Task: inverse folding
């Protein structure tokens, strides 16, 4: 396949696809392979019973555990900086929470049983419902692995809620609203219909599909979509939440088997913001961005052309999907 560009209708961006570059020799930096961990680490600030910052101490929790981030990026109160016509700034209020997925220090979501993952999904759902009563935006996300900047290997994610709609979410809303207005169908509903049995589909359950998007930037990037159009995470019904645990275990296990390593990634959920005028155009979805390119130690770097022009990928989404689907 010759070099070409692909358009991302969700964010109004282009990505350059150069599959011939996979043959080039690699002499760059390599990631270290994670070492096995103990089930409990007395020095881990997230393990049950251990102390955290200040006088905070975790209870002896036995499933999921949620607490207010000891070093939050957002605060409930914030004062607006001085206004300037050129150097604009505005106050942002919010709160940040940490979600421990399991009391076991040595697990990841991919290692957990479906009922354990379902407990995480139910926690995400309950937290989102509660936070949406006070904030316009609730961002669920997980950074897994040192390669994605995770400072603690204990299985956990975060939830940030704010009164401001983030830039990428605003961009997705504009794109989905424009598509719905002209086409009469939610953008991601059409993506699901066209991809569900297509070459980029990776895993599927009754309620969900995981696929490598046509416009993927990261080598093994994936998109998780519901088979029934649902605008936001808090609107998922019981069947969808149960089935999501099955899909997550399937997909994340495929990642780990790809290079026989605990696959690093950043994962997060997007859905209609609270009070959105375009809720009917939205479909809740998760983005998963894993950095590994060729092996457990060789990763993709967003540098040079990617930083200064537009994203570029060396592996076609179709090839990536075939490799994940075959595992």
Result:
């Amino acid at each position: 396949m010759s070099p070409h560009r692909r358009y991302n209708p969700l964010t109004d961006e282009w990505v350059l696809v150069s599959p011939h570059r996979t043959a080039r020799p690699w002499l760059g930096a390599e990631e270290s392979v994670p070492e096995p961990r103990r089930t409990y680490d007395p020095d881990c600030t997230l393990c049950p019973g251990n102390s955290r910052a200040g006088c905070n101490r975790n209870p002896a929790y036995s499933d999921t555990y949620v607490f207010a981030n000891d070093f939050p990026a957002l605060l409930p109160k914030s004062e607006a900086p001085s206004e300037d016509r050129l150097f604009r700034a505005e106050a942002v209020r919010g709160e940040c929470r940490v979600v421990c997925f399991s009391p076991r220090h040595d697990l990841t979501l991919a290692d957990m049983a479906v009922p354990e993952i379902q407990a995480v999904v139910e926690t995400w759902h309950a937290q989102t419902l509660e936070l949406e009563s006070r904030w316009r935006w609730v961002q669920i996300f997980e950074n897994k692995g040192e390669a994605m900047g995770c400072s603690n290997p204990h299985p956990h994610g975060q939830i940030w809620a704010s009164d401001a709609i983030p830039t990428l979410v605003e961009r997705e809303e504009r794109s989905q609203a424009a598509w719905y207005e002209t086409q009469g169908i939610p953008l991601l509903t059409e993506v699901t219909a066209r991809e569900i049995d297509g070459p980029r589909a990776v895993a599927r359950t009754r309620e969900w599909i995981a696929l490598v998007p046509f416009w993927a930037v990261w080598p093994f990037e994936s998109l998780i979509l519901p088979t029934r159009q649902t605008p936001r995470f808090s609107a998922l019904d019981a069947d969808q939440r149960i089935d999501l645990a099955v899909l997550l275990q399937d997909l994340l296990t495929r990642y780990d088997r790809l290079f026989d390593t605990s696959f690093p990634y950043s994962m997060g959920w997007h859905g209609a913001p609270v009070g959105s005028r375009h809720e009917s155009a939205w479909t809740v979805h998760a983005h998963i961005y894993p950095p590994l390119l060729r092996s457990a130690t060789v990763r993709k770097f967003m540098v040079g052309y990617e930083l200064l022009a537009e994203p570029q990928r060396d592996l076609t989404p179709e090839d990536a999907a075939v490799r994940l689907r075959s595992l």
Notes: Helices lie at 114-132, 167-183, 187-195, 238-258, 305-308, 317-325. The chain has a mean pLDDT of 94. The chain has one domain: 38-325. The chain has six helices and twelve strands.
